Amino acid sequence: MKKLTLLASAVAMVISCSALAKITPEQAARLGQDLTPIGAERAGNAEGTIPEWTGGILTPPAGFQPGDHHPDPFADDNVLFVIDSSNVNQHRDKLSPGQIALFELYPDTFKMPVYPTRRSASFPQYFYDATKEIATKAELIEGGNGLANAAIGIPFPIPSNGLEAIWNHIVRYRGVSATRNGGQAAPTASGAYTFIGFDEQIMFKYSHPDATPENLMAENILFKFKQSVTSPARLAGTALLVHETMDQVATPRQAWTYNTGQRRVRRAPNVAYDAPGTASDGLRTTDDFDMFNGSPDRYNWELKGKKEMYIPYNSYKLHSNELRYSDILMPGHINPEHTRYELHRVWVVEATLKDGMRHVYGKRVFYIDEDSWQIHVADLYDNRGDLYRVAMAHGLNYYEVPTHWSTLEVFHDLNSRRYIALGLDNEHPMYDFSVTLSDSDFTPAALRREGVR
To answer: Is the pTM of this model over 0.85?
Structure first.
């Protein structure tokens, strides 16, 4: 990998995850000044190919109504150039090894249309205020497997190690509550697929405006998540409930499943780590969901630095309700005509499996957008050190919230030449971020009711 560029305040070397020092008040004072409110470099790059961050999208496009699939605020942008197998070597320094592997695997069809960079990520003011408030207080606990003295905001806006950076991704702002409809598909090598429909509810306790470090630690809950399968008929009614904890040593993740055949709710301690994801044909792990989730305890984490990279961004075209799923899904990879890539600065975090630990991924390299702490690309290696899977999150600004989040996550299995596209919603109602959810919606009894609808 090319030499990575670090922020001026960071040490010009790989930083050990054992250093858990808090940032100083002087460092925190940079937030909202030369750094954005959540720690990105406010300035553009020297070449002018990455612009200054000026607040992101501050108002929705004219005519937008919550509940609409989000109109593209950058629809008039023209493609700057297209990266394909004929010119990929000219751009290698701004691509991940996994992205390069996709050009090699699908030389005739895989492409990356590159557009002007729009630093569109924006968030509510109370989230920015909370980030500055906790920046000098937040800390990792129990070897990095938990979080303390933090609520609402990004706990480590100036990260000093890889664990801090990955926790920023785990607790990044995605609204307070949301319902999602849509699903996933895993095309075969020929392009045939079965759509798996989901109804999902999620409540981010960490992000609630009334959240405090004290009440979060007392309850020990980061978020609650419920998912029910709606199609096909043979799977409909299967349901999953997850309570994600803040201190994962004191209380590991709690999960329950409802099986329609047994008509019973059961505890599901195996819904974690490398257990196969729901109805995924074995093409992603449980902790691949949201690009990475769950306890980081099986890996050693290194913050490798920062680099400029082409990542999927402002993916409004891919998100459009004018597309059918058949317009998106094709053999080998999604249709590149509907994708958008931009040049952004990303934090590079490398996770290496600890001695004595088991996971199908021996190493994972995450590329995290500096403006949102969303993982946009992940290169996933097997235990022999070979590239195994490549994941990309196609993100956009949900400007009614506002938040930057993925609209589609795509996991490419390089060995089987298959992929799974998770988050397809073009033919379904849009996310509802205005919904009011409560703890009573996330109990085992509620899971059973969800499953038998």
So the answer is: yes
